[in-house]
Amino acid sequence: MHEPIRVLHVDDQADFADLTATALEREDDRLSVEAVTSADEVLERLTDGVDCVVSDYDMPGRNGIEVLEAVRERAPDLPFILFTGKGSEEVASDAISAGVTDYLEKEGGLSQYTVLANRIRNAVDQYRSKRALEGSQRRLSLFVEQSPLGVVEWDEEFRIVSLNDAAEEILGYAESEVRGDSWERIVSGADTDAVGEVVDELLEDRGGYRSVNRNVRADGEVIVCEWYNRAVTVGDGDDGDVVAIFSQFQEITDRIERERRLERSTARLEALFQNSPDMINVHDTAGNILDPNPRLCERTGYDAAELTEMKVWDLDETVDPETARRVWAEMGVGDRRRLDGIYRCRDGSAFPVEIHLQRLDPGGGERFVVISRDVSERMVRERELERYETIVETIDDVAMVVDPDRTVAYVNETGVHYAGAAADDIVGRSVVSLASEFVAEPGGADRFERTLDGAFDATPPVEGPERLELDVEAAVGRVVLEYQFSPVFEGSEVTAVVVTMRDITARTERERMLEATKERLDTVVSNVPVVLFALDADGIITLSEGQGLDALGWEPGEAVGASVFDLYADTPAVCESIERALDGEEVSATQRIEGRFLEAAYQPVFDDGPVTGVIGVAMDVTERRRREHDLQRQNERLEEFVGVVSHDLRTPLNVAEGHVELARDEAGSEHLDAAMRALDRMTALIDDLLRLAREGERVNEIESVSLAAVVEECWDTVETGGATLRVETDLSIRADRGRLQHLLSNLLQNSVEHSSTDGRPDADDGEGSGTPRGTGDAGDGVGVTITVGPLDGEGFYVADDGPGIPRDRRADVFESGYSTVSDGTGFGLAIVQEVVEAHGWSIRVTESAAGGARFEVTGVETA
């Protein structure tokens, strides 16, 4: 739609002015004519958006030339047409000199208005085009000056007209150095043809608006720039005139290099994704599986299209949707989680997996990468080796991408962990120098380099990755790594090698342990009277070895191939044990075979469910059984002897005691008192001998006992005189209560009896500050303080502040009959030793802090 044109027509004849307005508006509906009759009215209307002034010449006051001059003072470029009936060369000359736009003489008829309308349109179009051009030039100048990007103005031959400051800085030229030069001066020769096509397209309005090409700076440096080109035209459509050509550009050398590096990195990571021995998939926050790798498809039996139609919980039967969403929401970018799962296969089977989950932010929405590993074989192996101490470890692979120049292009987080260095310190380094730094075994770095060179020299197709095992001194310690070298091809050229490293330290150590175990078993089998055997599921003997076969009349391997049920049909106990083992039960039994006693252990062997056989070991214990039988008979005879001694000695002693008591009642005598003391001593000796004979037996009735409570009970039964007791422990121990009482009573009695009459009742024994408890009077001549306390969780002690035990006599105190007092039996501490050994404890005697005796009992189990 054409823009309307507002015309101001001045003529002193109002009728003619109105006629002219009507005729012009009829001639062109774009024209809107306002008629005025004086020059003053013209000047008043100029600010009302007038596009053209049409003026008569001969008017009162001011003529047309004077009106023109007045208009030019206010609007120098406004179209002004002198439309006059007084035409002459003089008037025309004056009008042109005054800056008239056009000059037209009045004529008769309406045709003159057609000419006038055409003159008005042309004048206004030219005026508007000029103003538009000036506006464009002003805007372009402002744009060129203020643009943060480089701007080049070209002429119609694509020669440089001007550069802004940014362009001078990017290209290194001052504007004056290149003004008038062709575009070829700043374009690299390699891109001349391509840029020439852009120039042609731009000039012919066929495109060329954007290009990326290499440019040459003033110092000769080649840079990459991104150009946006535009031809500025004035006029309508394709008929517009090109008045200027501008190019806006920026240097993108770094960005291009980053994009190229990103492309290479993406290719390498894609190769790692495709070649990983682990199953990998990427899913979103809704649980949709977006991108499964080939290993996941291969292991589960689904193709990629099927997996991308599934949710995470469709694949992993252990995942609860609500729980999963909560876990994902709690994870930040870069966060990792380790999980266990069970993947469903397309055929309905399932297998356990170890899962490593990490949240990513790739720029296209929240994503989670799931790296999972099938642990089925490992679990089967663990079950098979369960009896030989299986260690289960989660193994994460180190992944590294190596460029053809043998520098590291990428390393994953596990590699960073093993190297103990930041990724930036690893990427860009020579992988051979890294191998020399970390590989610990002699010649290992050279083997690594040769294997890597072989991977780079490979040609497709490659059957599988090269493997190598090396000892490595890593940040996590010395480990054994299994290396895999997988070349990445572009066509037939190797562009990178993906090196994965799996920590197989545990596996290698296990193999060493198994080898050592085998050697030890071979030694045992060769030197110990055992029988090592194995049976299949039908009871057929598959292994028969060991020195113990001699006693049974067999040679090693002689029974292999025979049925154990046939060989031992007359020994039902053996057949029954084997049948129980074949049913999956571990069986231990002592059985009589060929007149010999054997302790046998039968272990079922499983193969992912059913029992496939039995392995076992049997030891000939005939001699041990005979010794145990003899020992039992000896103990029975000893018990019988003790009973006889107890009866036969006590009876006459009791009779003698009775007669002495009667004699003392009838007539007291110091000789009778001495005889009575001798009888008491003989009774004490008999009691101690009997107790000593029995205390050496192994304890059976073990219970939780309060040490303090037992000490108090014993104290109440000991003749303490002026002695004082301090109990400084709340320890509870596992012991036979009765025998513990014998032990403590004898230790307490020992401290009381062996303390001098000038003891130190007021002295601190140095063993603690418990509450003292005493009986009797200190004047009785004892005055010793006895302390019972703990030994830092190892046991307890009994200490006194008496005269102590000389260092050279301490080894003798536990011997039967040893005593330093005239009325002692010499068996008290021997009984203590027997009780200690019966419990499996240890005892030693040392000096207390106060200089007295201190007995320490260790190896005591606390309750």
Number of helices: 27
- Computed structural class: alpha+beta
CATH topology group of the largest domain: Beta-Lactamase
Molecular shape? elongated
- The CATH H-level superfamily of the largest domain is PAS domain
The CATH architecture of the largest domain would be: 2-Layer Sandwich
Give the C-level CATH assignment of the largest domain: Alpha Beta
The share of residues in extended strands comes to 25-35%
Low-pLDDT regions:
387-395, 756-771, 775-781
Please explain how this structure is put together.
Residues 750-785 are annotated as: Disordered. Its EC number is 2.7.13.3. Residues 583-633 form the PAC domain. One of its GO terms (molecular function) is phosphorelay sensor kinase activity. 39% of the residues lie in helices and 26% in strands. It has 863 residues and is an alpha+beta fold. The radius of gyration is 57 Å and the shape is elongated. A hairpin with a 4-residue loop joins β24 and β25 (611-620). A 6-stranded mixed sheet has the order 29-27-30-31-33-32, covered by helices on one side. The protein has a 5-stranded parallel sheet with strand order 2-1-3-4-5, with helices on both faces. A 5-stranded antiparallel sheet has the order 7-6-10-9-8, with helices on both faces. It has 6 domains: 5-122, Rossmann fold, CATH 3.40.50; 144-258, PAS domain (Beta-Lactamase, 2-Layer Sandwich), CATH 3.30.450; 276-379, Beta-Lactamase, CATH 3.30.450.20; 395-509, Beta-Lactamase (2-Layer Sandwich); 528-695, 2-Layer Sandwich (Beta-Lactamase), CATH 3.30.450.20; 701-757 and 782-858, 2-Layer Sandwich (Heat Shock Protein 90). α1 (14-27) packs across α5 (111-146), α23 (622-666) runs antiparallel to α24 (670-695) and α24 packs parallel to α27.
